[in-house]
Amino acid sequence: MSVENLKAYIESGVLELYVLGDLSPEEALQVEEMAAQHPEVKAEIAAIEQAIEQYAMQNAVEPSADVETRLLEKLGLSELEPEKTVKSTPPVAQEASIIPFDESAGKVRILRYALVACVALLIISTAALFITYSKLNDAHDQIASLNLDKQKFAGVVSKLEFENQGLSNMAAMADSQEWATINMTGQPFSPASKMKVYWNKKDKSVLVNYVAMDLPKTDKEHEYQLWAMVNGKPVSLGVFGKNDSTSNEALVKMQAIQEAQAFAVTIEPMGGSVNPNMGKLTVMGGV
Amino acid sequence: MTAFKKLTLTEPELVQQLQSKDPAVLKTLYSMYSSAIYGVISRIITHTELAEDVLQETFVKIWQSAAHYDNTKGRLFTWMMNIARNLSIDKLRSKDFKNSLKNQDIENNVSFVDEQNKVTFNPDVLGVKQLVDNLKPDLQAVLDLVYYKGFTHVEAAEKLDLPLGTVKTRIRLAIIELRRNFN
Questions:
Q1: ipTM, 2 decimals?
Q2: Which range is the signal sequence, renumbered to this chain (chain B) (predicted)?
Q3: B81 vs A53: CB contact, 8 Å cut-off?
Q4: Are B172 and A16 within 8 A, CB to CB?
Q5: By percentage, how much of chain A surpasses pLDDT 70?
Q6: Which terminal Cβ of chain B has fewer Cβ within 10 Å, N or C?
Q7: Does domain B123-183 have CATH number 1.10.10.10?
Q8: How many CB pairs under 8 A join A and B?
């Protein structure tokens, strides 16, 4: 290629288009071949490139800082940014001073919940305690009333046993040939009263049966006294207490008497009297 | 900010590290060239967000296709700038960009004005605005279309209703004018 042709080639503007990337691949290849063959072309291209580069440099516009951050992140190179680490330290420190506050706020919230839960638990416990206490009182009442019932039944049972003993004795004595049963009937002092006395024909012993008596009530200073009428004279056979079930024995053994025509009961002061108080003769019956 | 502590390396060092995929070089490369490349992108795409997306895409592509750069065919910056220009033009013609225009005309205008103002804040640029303005209007019009608007010289010829040869000549004259001023 002649110098004139080369100059014309350079001045055609194709090299500028090459640098601006405005050529087809084939055209670009031609330019590259020319540049390889002709240092003038290569130098011209370099000069155009430098001019464009200068032009770009001096028309530079600063992009926002986060583009670089995003770029490094996207390429996974962000750890290579020392500036970024330094910059990000103060916010981290600030966060660090905030985080414990958040944590303590969280703790306070938890403690508040705990307090509410405790109060609720206390109220429930107190209510439960009152319910339990009143139930316990009910139970105590029930136990007391059951005890009372038990005592009542025990009393009934012992009375029944007492009466059963007396009645079985009465039956046994009625069947027996040994025992004589003397029926005593009410006297003017106490017409409704009646009583039985059992007299053993062999050993002459005398028994009274609480079950088989119906006598007027006595006060604390008086008790009953049994008398035997021997040849018209009263002989004391001893005293016996009130008709009640305080003693376990329904039968009371009195003093023996060898012979008697009749038996009688009077009400005498405690301990008995030497002579009967005929004004208070309650029952009497002949043998 | 980075203007005060720009990291710099010579071009052969940059190319060597870039092609050996040394991670540290990306930061250096970004520090040295991001604003120059963004200056080109942001004049093609005036919408700030989209322009910054393209800037990011540009550096991703530079990083990923570094092996394809051949230093016998031209300067590293030329290669990078053409990546940026191609991505910008692709974006400009994409559905994505057309959609964003529908609702954001006013925003685009505002950000465009902002970017024009930004240029004047760069001390290196102070003379350039004037320089470009001092280009003869017919040279300026062609350079604007090809350099800033991403037009091919064929499209510029159609747009300006000029013969293809005239467009080529005017581009050459404009660049010669720039060379003269920079030298």
A1: 0.77
A2: none
A3: yes
A4: yes
A5: 87
A6: N
A7: yes
A8: 141
